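Good morning C.,

I know you're traveling, so I'll keep this short. The sequence:
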Amino acid sequence: METIESQTIKRIIAKIAETMREQKDYLSRLDAAIGDGDHGVSMVRGFNEAESRLSGLQNNRIGSILKNVGIALTSTIGGVTGPLFGVIFLKAGEAVRDKETVDLDDLAQMFQASLSGVIDLGKARVAEKTLVDALSPAVESLKKSARQKKSLAVALEDAVLESKKGADSTRDMLAKKGRATYLGERAVGHVDPGAMSVYFIFKSFYDAVEIIS
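The tokens, ready to paste straight into the viewer:
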């Protein structure tokens, strides 16, 4: 399968919601070390709402599907986390608008738009212990795969691996954004929960596509 249809996008969102439910306690433990400890609960609430919205959505345009996900996350996840994860899906949707199928080139453009949106909103850069540390390498991997004309499955698998490396790399970083900045050196040694959530999003994306393939 070298293209992803709108119904598959809906299944991908359902898979992300399932993964967040499975990883809720783990994500909250990560957050408890450097934040307020509710990241896992928040992500579950947001993606449960997204999944619910899509269950009744008749519109098959991928832009509309992703817009609904972005609105759900923004409106149900508190603090800055909701808008940051919301903009990932809102900007991805804007990049493809009325399309009902997307290919690897589209995915690279979608997630580049997501990354740009996150950076514009959160003012974070790589190596600041945020979700950007997992999102940026995944985006670069997708763009490289698109240039090299890799298969969709291989490109997504590579993006997952790069996202995981990026998330894991936050363990050794000083935090320069968010609550963790107040901890200073004490934040070193702990993985950023937002970065790990981005990894779970890419992993769910790959898993859902692989099952269908």
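Safe travels,
E.
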